[in-house]
Amino acid sequence: MTDKPTDEQLIADLLTLLDPAPLGDDRFEGPRKKGGVGRVFGGQVIAQALIAAERTVDSDRAAHSLHAYFLRGGSEDHTIQFQVDRQLDGGSFSNRRVVASQPGPDGAMQPILNLAASFQKHQPGLEHEQAEMPEVPPPDELETDEVLRQQVAEKMPERARRFFTEPRPIEIKAATGRHWLTEGPQPPVQNSWFRARAPLPADPVIHRAVLAYLSDMQLLGTSIMPHGLSWMRGEVKSASLDHAIWFHAPFRADEWMLYHCESPWSGGSRGFNTGQIFQNGRLIASVAQEGMIRRVEPRARPAGGAS
Asked: Would the pTM of this model clear 0.85, i.e. be above it?
């Protein structure tokens, strides 16, 4: 039995993961997840691509939005190559296009994600009353998802249990709704508190990358809740198709943030989800994502076979 990693170790591993190495000519190599043996988490690819783009932009320009398309599932068996295209450096805005690639079945490199990101110099402007943060229980009144996952792990299929219970660098406390505990149809709404488990460096680039990383958690599961299904129980197959983030205001990803997720629509084997992220009552980011969702039908038992 291996020792459980400390919060500081989990965050150190996350910071290493989100530190793509420069290869020259605006190319970067994103590290593999430590101990990773499966499919690459979408938030990892987005965060690594965002960091790669940030490193080609003047430091006085902060990312204010990104739009990504997931093209193929990534493998944790390989590092990820990022090619950044400097598409615009204007008076106030810069734009970058990033292509993330990995070896395919034949060994040739193939794209797994396309990302476009926009950056802006800090500028004052018109402001109006923002969206209000939902009223939910504060994080100090809630149990962590880590504890609750351990309590129900034995109910999960063996193939999902390892991923379901592995230590994560992001601490989560659900305030309302939990898609992986759905036992019947529920409203397509989730409210969860998120934060990095240990203090992060002061660099705002790192905090934006960590928010991009965690923004792919919970969101797609919101569109499954009205159907009473859970991929943890093997009842549904899902995959992110695209993902967009708008950064509105400065924040710290190592302090509690409330992630309010809603799904206004699903159909055609797709679910659409939106998210608003608040900190200290202030709207700091908005997220949108569409993903594939398909019911998994039980396999027919062969005639005369064992039950």
From this structure: yes
